[in-house]
Amino acid sequence: MHCSCVQIAVTAVNESCAVRESRIGLAPDACTNAALPTPANGDAASIVTLTAPLDSVPFTVDSDGTLPPLGPLLLGGALDRRGICWTLADTQRRAELGPFSLDAFVSILHEIDAPVLGLSVFNDALPLLIAALPHAARGRRVLVGGPGVLGNAETLLAEVPEIEAVVTGEAEVAFPELVCAAPRSHTLPGVVARGSSLRRPAAVVEPADQPSPAWQWCRDRGYSVVPLSTMRGCPFACQFCEVEVLAGRRVRRQDVSTVLSDLRRALDAVATRRVQVLDDAFTLAKSHLLRFCRELVVRGWDVEFEIFARPNTLDEESCEALAAAGCRRAYMGIDAGDDELLRRVSRGLTVSDAITGVDRAARWLEVVVSTMWGYPFESLAQLSAALQLGRCMRDRASAHPVHLMVHRLQPSVATPLFAEHHERLVLLDEVADHATARDERAVLDVIRRDRRTGSAFYRYETPDYLQKCRLLEAYQEEITCPR
Question: Domains in the chain, start-ordered, CATH in brackets?
Answer without folding.
Answer: 7-193 (3.40.50), 225-419+459-480 (3.20.20.70)
